[in-house]
């Protein structure tokens, strides 16, 4: 069996049909607030749990593993998930894992904001354009432009080096493109840019 899959209609496969699809997209966009919660309240929340911030984030990732394991064990899909996610790690699970890795490995606003926004805003942008049957070339070009402005906004608000926008906008779009059977693009859109950021960090020295 091929390790790659064809593009499918996310509405047809969503538990709850169009309503479930809209709910999933809303959750995706809502992940944009996670950096705000992390940087504004992460330390106080961790202190309430008697943990350091990295310990708290690691605990959250381990809890995610546990919850996904239980969900898979019972073959459960919730409203908005795709039917096939009853048999594999969910897109939400992959996205949460990737975001957890960002907060653990690149816990500064200059990195975390653009990487996470590229996922939370870029993935729905790409998906909705494809769902409407827009030509692939136009999907790619418009998505690169969209994410370029996301990274430029992060330069303005969070001091992300501006030149990174020119490299990471196309990289994030390319990271979404592989259609892997068991690894969702919510993971690749975060982990691939994160890996590249960590390679640049010894020269940027923002952490």
Task: Describe the protein in words.
This protein has one domain. The N terminus is likely disordered. The relative contact order is 0.14. The N and C termini lie far apart (43 Å). With 207 residues, it is mostly helical. It contains ten helices and no strands.
Report mean pLDDT, rounded to a whole number: 88
Count of discrete alpha- or pi-helical segments spanning 4 or more residues: 10
Radius of gyration: 17 Å
Strand content: under 5%
Element order, helices and strands? HHHHHHHHHH
Helix content percent band? over 70%
Shape: globular
Total of domains: 1
Q: Helix/strand-derived class?
A: mainly alpha
Number of strands: 0
Distance between the termini: 43 Å
Biggest sheet architecture: none
Brief overview, please?
By secondary structure, the chain is mostly helical. It is built from 10 helices and no strands.
How is the topology of this model organized?
Blueprint: H1 10-13, H2 17-30, H3 34-48, H4 53-74, H5 91-105, H6 109-120, H7 122-131, H8 136-158, H9 163-176, H10 185-204
Features:
207 residues; disordered N terminus; mainly alpha
């Amino acid at each position: 069996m091929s390790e790659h899959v064809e593009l499918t209609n996310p509405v047809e496969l969503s538990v709850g049909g169009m309503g479930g699809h809209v709910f999933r997209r809303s959750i995706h966009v809502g992940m944009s607030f996670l950096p705000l919660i992390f940087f504004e309240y992460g330390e106080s929340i961790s202190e309430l749990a008697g943990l350091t911030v990295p310990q708290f984030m690691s605990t959250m990732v381990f809890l995610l593993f546990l919850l996904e394991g239980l969900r898979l064990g019972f073959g459960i899909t919730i409203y908005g998930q795709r039917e096939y996610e009853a048999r594999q790690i969910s897109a939400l699970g992959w996205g949460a894992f990737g975001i957890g890795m960002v907060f653990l490995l690149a816990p500064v606003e200059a990195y975390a904001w653009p990487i996470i926004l590229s996922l939370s805003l870029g993935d729905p942008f790409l998906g909705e354009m494809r769902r409407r049957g827009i030509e692939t070339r136009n999907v790619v070009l418009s998505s690169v432009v969209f994410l370029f402005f996301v990274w430029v906004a992060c330069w303005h608000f969070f001091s992300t080096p501006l030149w990174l926008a020119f490299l990471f906008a196309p990289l994030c779009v390319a990271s979404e493109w592989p259609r892997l059977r068991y690894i969702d693009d919510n993971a690749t859109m975060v982990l691939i840019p994160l890996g590249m950021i960590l390679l640049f960090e010894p020269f940027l020295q923002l952490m």
